[in-house]
């Protein structure tokens, strides 16, 4: 499938400010659950008349979205083991990894009471040398990897720049993402994860004082 309409967005970010490009382009949904509407471009580029989207996410991000006037639903409850297990939730990952064109996938999702996700917005919290390896972001990386794996069906944004790119894509394509865009975002995300892993490897050597044999 090339063009995919974005209806369900999962958001889990530690730096809430990176959501600004998206939220600034959306008018908060009023009572009655009418569609979000994207503000038109000030240029001649196409805009959207109406963008009906459902926000899902982790509790902190959902609370932030609600504080900005948006409807949002938390689908991750409780941070087990002192926060070590946050977004590692089965329902979230099956919603990211499901193939909507497969009837059995949709059937399994229905049994779990979830819908397939069309976009994932997630960032990684900064690596803290003084609190390493506790500062490793396990859930965030897993979410990014899941979205990369299912790039054919899910658009991904993982930092401020990629969120701006996602907003531009949605405006230009009237609420849809193209396969080429999803491929490009997946490649950028894979490079980002590779760089992050290299940083973590360096910290393991330096902070944990691991010597190469």
Structure overview:
- By secondary structure, the chain is of the alpha/beta class.
- The protein has one domain: 3-Layer(aba) Sandwich (Rossmann fold).
- The chain is 42% helix and 12% strand.
- The chain has a 5-stranded parallel beta sheet, with helices on both faces.
- Helix 1 links the parallel strand 2 and strand 3.
- The radius of gyration is 18 Å and the shape is globular.
- The relative contact order is 0.17.
- About 10% of the residues have low confidence.
- One of its GO terms (biological process) is 'de novo' IMP biosynthetic process.
- One of its GO terms (molecular function) is phosphoribosylaminoimidazolecarboxamide formyltransferase activity.
- InterPro entries: MGS-like_dom_sf, PurH-like.
> How many helix segments?
8
The number of distinct structural domains comes to 1
Low-confidence stretches: 28-49
Q: Which structural class should the secondary elements be placed in?
A: alpha/beta
What is Rg?
18 Å
Q: Which H/E pattern describes the elements?
A: EEHEHEHHHEHEHEH
Strand order of the largest sheet: 4-3-2-5-6
Mean pLDDT rating: 84
CATH architectural name? 3-Layer(aba) Sandwich
Estimated helix fraction: 40-55%
């Amino acid at each position: 499938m090339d063009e995919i309409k974005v209806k369900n967005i999962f958001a889990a970010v530690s730096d809430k400010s990176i959501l600004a490009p998206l939220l600034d382009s959306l008018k908060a949904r009023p009572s009655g659950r009418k569609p979000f509407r994207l503000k038109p471009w000030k240029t001649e580029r196409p805009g959207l008349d109406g963008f009906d989207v459902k926000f899902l996410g982790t509790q902190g991000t959902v609370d932030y979205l609600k504080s900005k006037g948006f409807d949002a639903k938390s689908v991750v409850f409780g941070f087990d083991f002192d926060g070590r297990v946050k977004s590692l939730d089965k329902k979230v990952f099956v919603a990211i990894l499901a193939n909507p064109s497969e009837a059995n996938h949709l059937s399994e999702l229905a049994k779990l009471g979830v819908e397939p996700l069309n976009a994932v917005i997630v960032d990684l919290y900064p690596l803290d040398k003084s609190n390493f390896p506790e500062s490793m972001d396990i859930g965030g990386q897993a979410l990014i990897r899941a979205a990369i794996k299912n790039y054919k069906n899910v658009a991904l944004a993982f930092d401020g720049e990629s969120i701006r790119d996602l907003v531009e894509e949605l405006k230009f394509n009237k609420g849809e993402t193209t396969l080429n865009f999803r491929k490009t975002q997946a490649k950028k995300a894979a490079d980002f994860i590779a760089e992050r892993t290299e940083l973590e490897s360096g910290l393991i050597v330096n902070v944990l004082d691991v010597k190469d044999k």
